[in-house]
Amino acid sequence: MLRQSPAYRQHLTNIQNEVDAKKLKQMQKGNLFNEKSFYQAFVKDMLAAKKEVVIYSPFVSKFRSEFFRRTLIELRKRNIPVFIFTRPLEEHDYFMKAEISCALKDYEESGAYITYLPGFVHEKLAIIDREILWEGSLNILSQRQSREMMRRISDEILVQETMSYLGLNKKLAEAYKFQYERLYRNTAKNLEENKLAKIKLFFSGVIVPFLAWWLFAVAKVLIVSLKGAKLVFGLINFLYK
Question: What distances in angstroms separate CA 125 from CA 94, 136, 158, 163, 211, one per listed residue?
Fold first, then answer.
C-alpha cells in the first residue's frame, strides 16, 4: 500500500473541509426540525425578533396558548407586534369551539393581533422579521401529540416569495391598520379614565375638604348665633321681669 505524502493528506483534508463548509451552509439555510425540537428553536427566534412575528396556523388550542403566553407577553413589553392568521370560529367543529374561543382570547390578552381567514386555510408557517421562514406540516398554535416536520429557512428572497404567494403584504397592512386603531381606542380610553381619576382626586383632595371646612364654619357660626340669641333673650327676659 502506497503511503500518502503529508501534502496529499493536507489536500484531502482541504477538500473535506470545503465539502463540510458547503453542507453546513446548506443546513443553516434550511434546517429540519421535528415536533420535539421545533418549539425551542422557534421560541428562540421569536424572542430574538426585532420588528414583527407572523404566525399562520389554521388551528389553535388552549394547550398551546398557555405555552406561548409568557413569550407573547415578553414581546409585547418590547413593542414587537405578533400577528396570528387562523380560521374563523365558525369553520371549526362544534365541540371544539369553546376551547378555541378561550385560546383566541388568551392570545388577544397576551397582546397578539388576530386575523381570520375564511375558506378553510391549511397553510402552516411563521415569518420572523420578514427574514426567517418556518414552514412544514406542524400547526404551530395547536400541535400536541402528532408527529410533524418543520423547516427553518433564513432567506429573505424566499420569505418575500412566500409572502407574495399568500398575499401577506396586503393582509399585514390591514392588520397594522387594525392594530393602530385599537391602540388609538385604548389610548383614548386610558386618557378618559385618567381624566375621571383626576376629577375624583380633585374632589376628594380639594372639594371634599373645602366643603367639610365650610360646613364646620357654618355650624360654628350657627352655634355662636344660637348662643347669642339665647343671651339676648335672657337679657330681655331679665329687664322685663
Answer: 25, 7, 13, 11, 64
